[in-house]
């Protein structure tokens, strides 16, 4: 049973005060926290406080890996966490984990948002999961951090590399490294204890998880974005909201996907770049030829694997979804002047 709480103020539809419980993985100063807070606060303001959110501290109401199930079974009304922790529920979003396919956060966010309703198989699977998608937003491009420079495919050979992203794991294995599964909060200690030698992370991890303090050398290998942060609301909870509150939720969600997620992403990552470079000095970029060598080594193998696994996980017509997704990426890519992670790497 969903945990939605109603307080009647007169008993008529449109007058209820409603508080929704949020299970979040967000740590202070993470891009997840900034994005989630914008969505919660905008809805609270536009509903004059009739719809509010009780946001639990990260990993307190539900652990990061079980948040989607918490939202599905009603322990939480709204959830936010890394898609990869329950990737079997989200083949519609795990497509964003295919390396060298996804250019920037804005394009990926809008492509997944569009296809959640435009692709029949995706819409059906969202309905079957009992979740209404709020957004799936990449936290940024993949960076690799190590004790020494990781400037080529050969430098990855033999590394124990902490990696998120369902298909990024396969790419790391193809490069001769061993992917290590550590949650984001576990990574700092995992590096200190020697569980992993290096880490794959977006830029915000250097501050949110203090990775700049344990890994001094960071580089952009040209992989692009490689995972998403998902936000969802329990479908029954959403359906049970008064019509006027649902309209506000839809309005804010639309604005978040179309503009605000990208704005927040750019502002937060620009600030994180400033603070990170004070410690690590620079973020480098792989030569295009080296990035292409990694891409060529993978070929279309991970796209084919995604199709196979998406079909297994219940997505009808995954081939059509992937084709439509690529078309959406092409459509939205041109609307971004420069990715903030690339801008940070070029600030030398």
Automatic annotation (TrEMBL):
<dbReference type="InterPro" id="IPR038404">
    <property type="entry name" value="TRAP_DctP_sf"/>
</dbReference>
<protein>
    <submittedName>
        <fullName>TRAP transporter substrate-binding protein</fullName>
    </submittedName>
</protein>
<keyword id="KW-0732">Signal</keyword>
<dbReference type="Pfam" id="PF03480">
    <property type="entry name" value="DctP"/>
</dbReference>
<dbReference type="InterPro" id="IPR018389">
    <property type="entry name" value="DctP_fam"/>
</dbReference>
């Amino acid at each position: 049973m969903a945990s939605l709480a109603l307080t009647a103020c007169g008993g008529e539809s449109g007058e209820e005060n409603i508080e929704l419980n949020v299970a979040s993985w967000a740590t202070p100063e993470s891009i997840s926290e900034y994005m989630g807070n914008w969505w919660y606060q905008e809805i609270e303001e536009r509903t004059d406080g009739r719809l509010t959110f009780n946001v639990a501290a990260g990993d307190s109401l539900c652990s990061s890996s079980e948040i989607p199930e918490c939202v599905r079974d009603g322990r939480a009304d709204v959830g936010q966490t890394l898609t990869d922790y329950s990737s079997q529920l989200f083949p519609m979003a795990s497509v964003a984990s295919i390396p060298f396919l996804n250019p920037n956060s804005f394009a990926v966010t809008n492509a997944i948002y569009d296809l959640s309703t435009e692709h029949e198989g995706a819409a059906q699977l969202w309905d079957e999961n009992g979740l209404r998608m709020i957004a799936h937003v990449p936290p940024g491009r993949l960076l690799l951090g190590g004790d020494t420079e990781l400037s080529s495919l050969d430098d990855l050979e033999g590394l124990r590399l902490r990696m998120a992203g369902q298909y990024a794991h396969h790419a790391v294995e193809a490069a001769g490294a061993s992917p290590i599964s550590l949650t984001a909060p576990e990574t700092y200690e995992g590096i200190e204890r020697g569980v992993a030698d290096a880490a794959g992370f977006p830029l915000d991890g250097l501050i949110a998880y203090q990775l700049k303090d344990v890994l001094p050398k960071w580089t952009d290998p040209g992989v692009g974005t490689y995972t998403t942060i998902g936000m969802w609301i329990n479908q029954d909870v959403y359906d049970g909201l008064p019509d006027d509150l649902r309209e506000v939720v839809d309005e804010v969600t639309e604005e978040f996907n179309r503009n605000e997620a990208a704005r927040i992403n750019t502002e937060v990552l620009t600030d994180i770049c400033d603070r990170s470079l004070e410690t690590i000095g620079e973020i480098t970029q792989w030569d295009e030829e080296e990035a292409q060598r990694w891409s060529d080594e993978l070929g279309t193998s991970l796209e084919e694997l995604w199709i196979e696994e998406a079909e297994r996980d219940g997505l009808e017509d995954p081939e059509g979804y992937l084709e439509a997704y690529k078309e959406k990426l092409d459509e939205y890519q041109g609307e971004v002047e420069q990715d903030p992670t690339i801008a940070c790497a070029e600030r030398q």
